[in-house]
Every structure is written in structure tokens, then in C-alpha cells.
Specification:
GO molecular function, one term: zinc ion binding
Subunit structure: Monomer.
Number of helices: 14
Strand content: 5-15%
Largest sheet: 8 strands, parallel
Number of domains: 1
CATH class: Alpha Beta
Strand order of the largest sheet: 1-10-7-6-5-4-3-2
Keywords: Amino-acid biosynthesis, Metal-binding, Methionine biosynthesis, Methyltransferase, Transferase, Zinc
Structural class: alpha/beta
Number of strands: 10
Domain Hcy-binding: 18-340
CATH architecture: Alpha-Beta Barrel
Binding site for Zn(2+): 257, 325-326
Bound molecules: zinc ion
């Protein structure tokens, strides 16, 4: 089990139940961190590379730790490792040995765990200490190991189209991800975050790998959508979420790297097919252009203010974990955290009535 989440990871074939308990401990809705690459660049890292943020695992691990700490300071309950684009195949293509590549994957998880330990230490001694309470309650923090899609490894933008071509089968995806998943799981994260999943086939590959490799760490499946109804490939989001629902090792289902304006409808659609906690961590509303590797403001894109003003609505719709993806930063996460805590204070009574603390609200 992970070292930070109290009792987290010990679950009897009910990963979703374990995550619900954590969400309750976090105040009814957990705060997920924001974009890693954006912040690394902000701190001077050069990410013009196929390895993207994973490049910093080699060149600047201290920057990664700093960004994790910034997100913890901003109120994150879950920090995500810098392994989204870190793959054994990607590192080997750059001349690293298999052993070195696997060590870098482990390092991504360990850096996040170090940041959590530093943060917890500061909390007990320093400015984060809760005043006026006899026993200050630490904010629960989990470390999620990020697993990017096959498209993220290809670095050709295909995680935003879901089109891997006919030659790529579910078996191709399973053999691509198998060893990486095992190495990340062995590094001891509290969660495994399968992110920016662009199609149903990759979700099926992940579900089968979790079973076949007997991965006992709760996972979440997060899809990306461009139209609010389907994953990037065009597979209906309900079918994608149903794959996650049918796998007992999956703790939560959601969407990330999706425009904020699409998120509300996606939460409602996902909740039609699963009662597992729903995670949403949209991007800033800008659009990624694969050809130029740039983000551009899209028509109808939400500003940061709009993004944060949506948080209450997402929670009302049933989101249990809320954070940010690309082009969001610690300021976004701080605003999300404040918005959620304001919501929680406003409807404290509702939560007291919940059977297990998870907001099982009627979807109106
Ligand atoms: Zn993103």
C-alpha cells in the first residue's frame, strides 16, 4: 500500500469504496493538482522534446518536486507524478538502458512522495499548522502515478484523436503498457491515474492489465473529449465509462484535458453508467495544435474565472474529484480548493445525511 494515505490502498475488491472514504476525509470533494508541464516551463524547464515533462526526471527532478509542493500549498489532495509521457520505450529511444528507464519511472513516484513528506513536515511545524485546535488535522494527500496513453508516447497528437491506425490492436497497447504499469505500481503510489484516454480500446487494455498483473492499487480512468458526448476517437463516453465501471480495480472514472464547457454534460453522462466517484480535471479551454505543439485560445474557451465558477456546478452534478490539466496552474487549483470548501460549508447538512459521505445526489 502507499505510504501516505491512511489505510488507503487496502480494499477488498472495492477500489471505489476506498476512494470514497478518502474523498469524505478530504471534505466531500477532493482537489486534484493542475498542469505539470505548464508549471515546469514557468520555472524555466525546456520541454520542447518528445519526452515532454518526463525530460525533467533526468535533468531537473528538483523542479518537479517544487511544482508538486506548489500544488500542495495551493490545496491539492492528490498530486500526480511526472510520468505521463515517461515510458520505457521513450527513454530507450534516447539511449537509456532498460534499468535506467525503469529507475526514472520509479523516480517520478518517489519525487511526489518526497514532496508530500516535505509538505507534511512543514504543516506540523510551520505556516500550515492549524491554529486553535488541540490536534491539528493534516490534509490527506495521495500520490497518483500518471500513465499517459499510447498517443502520448507517440507525441503526434493522437491522444487527442484516438486514432492509432489499424495496425494497433488491444494487444499492442497491452504489451506497450504492461511493464511500465508494473514498475509504477511497484514504486508504491496510492493511486494509478490513467489519463487522457482517447478511446475505448485503450481503456479495455488497461482494465485487462490491471487484472492480469493483479495490480492492487486503486486506479482511475480519465478520458478526453472534444464534443462532450464521446471520447476523442468518437467512442461514446458512456461505453468508455462502462469499461471502467466493470473493472473492480477502477476506483473512479472521469475526464481530463477537456474544455471546461463540456465537463458538466460529461459528468451527467458518466453517472448514467457508473456509481463510482467521478473525477474531472479539464484544461484551460485552449486547444492543443499538434503540428505546432502550441496551445491556442479556441472559440468559446473558458477563462480561468469561468473555469472556477463551474466548480460548484460540477460538484452538484456529482464530481467527487476536481482539478486542472494542461495550462492550469497553482492559482487555478487554489481557486478550485476555495470554491469547493465554500460549497462544502454551504451544504454541510446535506453531507451529514449521506450514508457514507460520498455525495450521492440526485441528478436533476
Ligand atoms: Zn492536459
Amino acid at each position: 500500500m502507499g505510504r501516505g494515505g491512511r489505510d488507503f490502498g487496502e480494499y477488498d475488491d472495492d477500489a471505489a469504496g476506498a476512494l470514497r472514504r478518502f474523498v469524505r476525509e478530504a471534505g466531500g470533494c477532493a482537489v486534484v493538482d493542475g498542469g505539470l508541464a505548464t508549471e515546469l516551463e514557468e520555472h524555466g524547464a525546456d520541454l520542447q522534446d518528445e519526452l515532454w515533462s518526463a525530460r525533467c526526471l533526468v535533468s531537473a527532478p528538483h523542479l518537479i518536486r517544487k511544482v508538486h509542493l506548489d500544488y500542495l500549498d495551493a490545496g491539492a489532495n492528490i498530486i500526480t507524478s511526472a510520468s505521463y509521457q515517461a515510458t520505457i520505450q521513450g527513454f530507450q529511444a534516447r539511449g537509456l538502458s532498460r534499468e535506467q528507464s525503469e529507475a526514472l519511472l520509479r523516480r517520478s513516484v518517489h519525487i511526489a512522495q518526497e514532496a508530500r513528506a516535505i509538505f507534511a513536515d512543514g504543516w506540523s511545524k510551520g505556516p500550515h499548522a492549524t491554529r486553535g485546535r488541540s490536534s491539528p488535522r493534516r490534509r490527506p494527500v495521495l500520490v497518483a502515478a500518471s500513465v499517459g496513453s499510447y498517443g502520448a508516447y507517440l507525441a503526434d497528437g493522437s491522444e487527442y484523436t484516438g486514432d492509432y491506425g489499424r495496425s494497433v490492436t488491444k494487444e499492442t497497447l497491452k504489451s506497450f503498457h504492461r511493464r511500465r504499469l508494473q514498475v509504477l505500481a511497484d514504486a508504491g503510489p496510492d493511486l494509478i491515474a490513467f489519463e487522457t484516454i482517447p478511446n475505448k480500446m485503450e481503456a479495455e487494455a488497461y482494465a485487462e492489465l490491471l487484472e492480469e498483473n493483479d495490480i492492487r492499487i486503486p486506479a482511475w480512468f480519465s478520458f478526453t473529449s472534444k464534443d462532450g458526448r464521446s471520447a476523442a476517437s468518437g467512442d461514446p463516453i458512456t461505453e468508455c465509462a462502462a469499461v471502467a465501471d466493470s473493472c473492480a480495480r477502477v476506483a473512479a472514472v472521469g475526464v481530463n484535458c477537456t474544455a471546461p464547457r463540456l465537463v458538466h454534460g460529461l459528468i451527467l453522462a458518466i453517472r448514467k453508467v457508473t456509481s463510482k466517484p467521478v473525477a474531472v480535471y479539464p484544461n484551460s479551454g485552449e486547444t492543443y495544435v499538434a503540428e505546432t505543439k502550441e496551445w491556442v485560445v479556441s472559440e468559446g474557451g473558458a477563462s480561468e474565472t469561468d473555469f472556477v465558477s463551474c466548480v460548484g456546478k460540477w460538484r452538484q452534478a456529482g464530481a467527487a474529484l476536481v482539478g486542472g490539466c494542461c495550462r492550469t496552474n497553482p492559482a487555478t487549483v487554489r481557486a478550485i480548493s476555495r470554491a469547493l470548501h465554500a460549497e462544502a460549508a454551504a451544504d454541510d447538512d446535506d453531507y451529514a445525511d449521506d450514508v457514507d459521505g460520498f455525495p450521492v445526489m440526485a441528478v436533476l
